[in-house]
Amino acid sequence: MYKLVMKKLISLILTLSLFFPLFRNDFKDKQLQYRKVRTAYEEKEEYLKGLLKEKEINNFSFDMFIRAFKDEEKFEVWVKKKNQKTYQLLKTYDICTTSGVLGPKRREGDLQIPEGVYYVNNFNPFSSYYLSLGINYPNASDKILGYKPGLGGNIYIHGSCVTIGCIPLTNDKIKEVYVLAVEAKNSGQNKIPVHIFPYRMNDENNDVFFDEYSHDTTLTSFWNNLIPIYSYFETYKKNPSSRVNKEGIYYF
Fold first, then answer.
1. Does domain 32-251 fall into CATH 2.30.30.40?
2. Whether the predicted pLDDT of 14 surpasses 90
3. Known catalytic residue: 195?
4. DSSP characters for the chain?
5. pTM for the structure as a whole
């Protein structure tokens, strides 16, 4: 009986392994049904393959990591091979416009771009802002620290260069980011990390901004919580696996 069960199990595994590529490509195939995604691939696929080849990634099998810096208005895309532990910087983009001020998003309608640890949770190929990638705002920390009756939502990385709290790129650049995100998800990365910081949180900048915002201890306390997350990635080029405690504080 045991041998029979094992034989059937091995047969099932082999069968699934044969069809796995079909399952894996299903997400990309669905995305390519949309005109704007097809256009993005037509215009950007070969260019992106060239960028990846420079990082010794010779196919579209990679993991992706995103960082955004509000004060500098910069948006970074990092990549790594599936069998590697550390990320490499692939490209830095300009955030083409902004809204709100430095500090996290705490309520609906405050025009704030969030700050903290997020991940891509939605692909919108028919966005009003050309193409868009949703992030999971409000996250666990936001839900604890934000304004409970109305936290807001629908925060995206998108095109069209307009914003009331999202991260906007030009249409040309969102095509690149969207294609990379599709390929990362298609190759098995279910959650693409997105870290949003008020600024590059190195020692020099911390001194400047903490002095400027010394009157707001709630804000500087929150920023103090983000510094280890920023520093960990700067040091190790690995995604820190952070969690949130019952006070809304990140830890890892």
1. no
2. no
3. no
4. -HHHHHHHHHHHHHHHHHHHHHHHHHHHHHHTTSHHHHHHHHHHHHHHHHHHHHTT--SS-EEEEEEEETTTTEEEEEEEETT-SS-EEEEEEE-----S-SS---STTS-PPP-EEEEEEEEETT-TTSSEEEE--S-HHHHHHS-TT------EEESTT--SSSEE--HHHHHHHHHHHHHHHHTT-S--EEEEESS--SHHHHHHHHHHTTT-HHHHHHHHHHHHHHHHHHHH-S----EE-TTS-EE-
5. 0.90
